[in-house]
Design brief:
Blueprint (H helix, E strand, L loop, with lengths): L18 H16 L7 E7 L6 E11 L2 E5 L6 H9 L1 E6 L2 E9 L6 H15 L12 H7 L5 E4 L1
Antiparallel strand pairs: 1-2, 1-4, 2-3, 3-6, 4-5, 5-6
Helix pairs in contact: 3-4
């Protein structure tokens, strides 16, 4: 019997990757990152699956603001988000360097400046998942976008 959190709301948002992203883009970024070539702050996130316990990997972008680091889930409540919520920690890899980190989820009210900085840096890659909200959006728009995009502080 496991004590893993379950999703019980219908408000959960998840944008599934298309074929190109799943089969070409993400594997390419992950491979480059595993070789030690971090593309714009990329890392390979490794986390145990919440059901199988097997290590699951996905490329992520690490955002640094004032010496604090964050992970943003632009596609919403993805499998890596659910696994991180269950485990509370993960490994972040670039090349042979592996960093074991604790992840603390950020409250929606605290997300606007983090989302703004994330969009400034990676809008070209992830902007399509923010329903027209960009880095120049007002605080109200970013507050409204917050619940759709989990954000974790890396500790």
């Amino acid at each position: 019997m496991t004590n893993y959190p379950e999703i019980t709301t219908t408000d959960v948002r998840y944008v599934e990757p298309d074929w190109f992203t799943r089969n070409i883009f993400n594997p390419l970024v992950a491979r480059c990152t595993k070789w030690g070539l971090s593309l714009w702050g990329s890392r390979v996130l490794e986390v145990p699956g919440r059901v199988s316990g097997e290590i699951r990997t996905t490329p992520v972008n690490v955002l640094t603001i004032d010496e604090r680091r964050y992970l943003v889930a632009p596609r919403g409540t993805t499998q890596w988000v659910l696994n991180v919520r269950a485990s509370g920690s993960c490994d972040l890899r670039v090349g042979r360097r592996r960093e074991h980190v604790q992840l603390v989820e950020i409250d929606d009210a605290d997300k606007p400046e983090i989302l703004r900085a994330y969009l400034r840096r990676w809008k070209w890659e992830v902007g399509q998942f923010f329903d027209g909200v960009g880095p120049d959006a007002g605080d109200d728009e970013l507050v409204a976008a917050g619940p759709k995009h989990p954000v974790f502080e890396i500790r």
